[in-house]
Amino acid sequence: MALDSNRVIIAGGGPVGLVAALALGRAGIPVTVIEKGDGPQHDLRASTFHPPTLDMLDEFGITPKLIEHGLIAPTWQFRDRATGPVAVFDLGLLKDDTAHPYRVQCEQWKLVGFLMDEIARLPDVEVLHGHALTSVEQDAAGVTVTAEAADGPVRFAGRWLVGAEGARSPTRKTLGIGFDGMTLPELFLVVSTPFLFEDVFPQLSPINYMSDPDEWLVLLRTRDFWRVLIPADPNAGEEHLLSDAFVRAALKRVHATAESAPTLHRTLYPVHQRVASTYQAGRVFLAGDSAHINNPLGGMGMNGGIHDALELARLLVEHWVADDPERLGVYTRRRRPVAYDEVQAATLRNRQILNERDPAVRNARLDDLRRTGADPVAARNYLLKSSMILGLRQAATVQ
Ligand SMILES: Cc1cc2nc3c(=O)[nH]c(=O)nc-3n(C[C@H](O)[C@H](O)[C@H](O)COP(=O)(O)OP(=O)(O)OC[C@H]3O[C@@H](n4cnc5c(N)ncnc54)[C@H](O)[C@@H]3O)c2cc1C
What we know:
Strand content: 25-35%
Distance between the termini: 36 Å
CATH class of the domain at 8-73 and 98-180 and 273-354: Alpha Beta
Largest sheet: 8 strands, mixed
Strand order of the largest sheet: 6-5-14-15-16-13-17-20
Bound molecules: flavin-adenine dinucleotide
Structural class: alpha+beta
CATH superfamily of the domain at 8-73 and 98-180 and 273-354: FAD/NAD(P)-binding domain
Low-confidence stretches: none
Shape: globular
Helix content: 25-40%
Radius of gyration: 21 Å
């Protein structure tokens, strides 16, 4: 055994695993994080932080850093790619619901860095890079995990295990927990560029979802560049989709003057919509992408994972002395319905709004959004859902 067993083991040092480690460590609970990568991952995926996540991370001193190294987005919008703005949502309508009535655009790898800095101050939280969890065993008293490291397998003992190793979670697979759902037929291509889209599109927000029957588009501003997200045909082949010719043509379709814009990153993502059948098996929990994955239209995956991590950490602290897995069942009961009813529903609906081909249905959906955006009461209700506040409020009532 590499360690004493009176601690929480967290598999995965991504945003979700590290938030859980920080929250537990700050409460005085010893933690070991085992992370497969050799160092913090330079992950470009998430860029949006919703208001309640900013409220939660503020408690750890992280939110001011996200703001300092990111960009405040006071509004976001739906557009028709051909005709322009449909509905502009002003997050200021949430001023009585959150201390942060805006979204913050900041890359997820920056969050991982800030979390590592905070964790480094804690006496009994360690992050072991280069350790890939391979198997999990548990009995009534605790868990034992095996990780593959450079010098061979290492075993760790703990009281609880949090599987936060992302979508392919070996923890979830080892325990045989189902992960039903579907894989979307299209790939998502993300390209970042310093091209100034705000100079060529009037009334752009930092976050723009653009509906189009042929090729929907998302334009996301981060501090240093724009991220362009479009659907791509998996049959076209990765090499072609990432080629200069394809990317230039795609940028030209966004705006004629963007054709020769430089690009900094080009990444293709397969996208899935899946939720684990349970988030707990005895002394083992799932959190973040290991428990639920969804398309990024709405920016909810990492935010929901952070909400999982903080709810789970709170429950583990509360029940540390009682040490009874049955008392922790409330974690699945609170967090799993949010993944279905809020996140899966919203992200699939956003995709439908963006890619609808039937003109009548498309117009009806856009008209509906137009009406919602124009009515402050309806817009606030819509923002409570899309900002993930309502799901948290509902979850808090579950016993
Ligand atoms: C294009 C795109 C844009 C997105 N934008 C947003 C957004 O704006 N907002 C949002 O909320 N979400 C967004 N997401 C989703 C977001 O990126 C994920 O939900 C988030 O990364 C999940 O965090 P996690 O810590 O659960 O998992 P991950 O970030 O996948 O981290 C898992 C960690 O576990 C490690 N690991 C893997 N296997 C093992 C093992 N066997 N042992 C130990 N460690 C292991 C990995 O190296 C990694 O460090 C986006 C996703 C995509 C694809």
